[in-house]
Amino acid sequence: MSWRSLIQNMPGQVRRWLLVAGAAFMLFWFVFFDSYSLLSRIRWHQESTKLNSENAQLRSEIDELEAQLARPLTDEDVERIAREEYGMTRPGEVVYRVEEK
Predict the structure, then answer these.
(1) How far apart are CA 72 and CA 87, in angstroms?
(2) Model's pTM, two decimal places?
(3) 94 in a structural domain
């Protein structure tokens, strides 16, 4: 006996119940377990939103840094950088380093 003849010999309510149960199972599978499930799509959308906002923040930071690079350095800026970052001093000057905790 084949499946087709077995299904055709069933009463209408049983066939309808099997059809609804099969459709419900497929819907359940697509929502939760499929590789492109609804839950995966929601997670991907949240991650995409987070990455886009982070990308926008980094782009604004890059624009600020490029604006700083476009501005020429004054003599005071050069002296401040030389003293703070490279520890350079004037002749006869004593420097005491203070480290923050």
Answers:
(1) 22
(2) 0.49
(3) no
Q: Tens digit of pLDDT for each residue in 36-85?
A: 888 888 999 999 999 999 999 999 999 999 998 898 888 998 888 888 88
Query: What single string gives the DSSP state of each residue in 1-56?
Result: --HHHHHHTS-HHHHHHHHHHHHHHHHHHHHHTSTT-HHHHHHHHHHHHHHHHHHH
Domain count for the chain: 2
Residues 8-37 have a mean pLDDT of 82
Cα R_g (the chain), whole angstroms: 35
The verdict on residue 11 lying in a domain is: yes
Tell me, yes or no, whether 98 lies in a domain: no
Q: How far apart are CA 37 and CA 30, in angstroms?
A: 5
> What residue numbers bound the domain in which 84 lies?
36-89
49 and 65 inside one domain: yes
